[in-house]
Amino acid sequence: MAATQEEIVAGLAEIVNEIAGIPVEDVQLDKSFTDDLDVDSLSMVEVVVAAEERFDVKIPDDDVKNLKTVGDATTYILEHQA
Amino acid sequence: MSKIKPSQGAPYARIMGVGGYRPTRVVPNEVILEKIDSSDEWIRSRSGIATRHWASDEETVAAMSIEASGKAIADAGISAEQIGAVVVSTVSHFKQTPAIATEIADKLGTAKAAAFDISAGCAGFGYGLTLAKGMVVEGSAEYVLVIGVERLSDLTDLEDRATAFLFGDGAGAVVVGPSQEPHIGPTVWGSEGDKSETIKQTVPWDEFRVGDVSKLPLDSKGDIKFPAITQEGQAVFRWAVFEMAKVAQQALDAAGISPDDLDVFIPHQANMRIIDSMVKTLKLPEHVTVARDIETTGNTSAASIPLAMERLLATGKAKSGDTALVIGFGAGLVYAATVVTLP
Predict the structure, then answer these.
(1) Given CB 3.0 to 4.6 Å as the disulfide criterion, which of B86, B140, B235, B299 pairs with A61?
(2) Interface of A with B in 9-48 (CB under 8 A)
(3) Under an 8 A CB cutoff, do A64 and B234 touch?
(4) Model's pTM, two decimal places?
(5) φ, ψ (nearest 5 deg) of residue B34
């Protein structure tokens, strides 16, 4: 069953916590991965791959650069999840 | 029909000796920062690189190869005359004809050993090792010298902040010879030419003679730039970490080696972040020694695995007889992974 927006944000928070060590409560829709959450371009790839597995979605490299905020990623996953 | 007598090879092959050569000049990140807007902290956090070696005019591809090979031959306990073939993997020897392997074979004092170059980017060592194993087992050479050598400083765009810090120079060599027991596992290798754009030379050589220089890249002074190696960082990172971890696992499975049996992991020294993520993705046990030569050597493409192997053995972090997983991956895209017993 497709994940809800709330479930996606919670899932992304767990992923970002594991990869970048950021507290889960800091991962909010308006937060920028790079500027607020200490996720650099290479860590972002790890976040994306973990999100792909967790939410059964494909996020091609060309689309990754458009995912600036947690909200961007959440919307992308909502629209593309299987 | 006449019966052709087949060649007689050895039952198996093994790596008998390893040698490396690092150029004398050590280049810290401060030197790189003279041409790009970045910081030591940024370079270290994105790549794990603190210093790299850059070759002088005298430290040519041939000269570095001969130094590394001399050590590998001595380590193997054989003489140069016993070598039947010399395989050189490089992308940074700029005189394509003749192959540089022939000059190296001659200067080492081989007895007219077969000699040729291969082009397989950062997977070149694994490709050469696979050819060498085949030659020893098939019988066309008793001992094969495999050399990975690069002067990537010649192919570095010092004004590109994404790659200026990445590359280094050096040579690594191994001698592959006969064995009664298998000490080189099956190679898992391949190519993905549909991703050829992700790591590439910026401009082909023949663009320089066409006459129309308008397509050639210029540096900040307006001079034509020499070709350089460029890459799509995120795409390469994803492929290297997640796809290559699968290939590494396949190589372990093919050799019948479980992670618990493994002593050493020597991935191509592309980037510390790739190495760390691969280790995590592969779930390698704590006891496995991981090569992290990139910190002081940079990315030396085909030379990186034998250079890292030599340093692990020289510093006592690995020992002769250890079981090591080696995996090379890079421009092509190409890859090669296998399990070996360290010499």
Answers:
(1) B235
(2) 40-42, 44-46, 48
(3) yes
(4) 0.93
(5) -65, -25
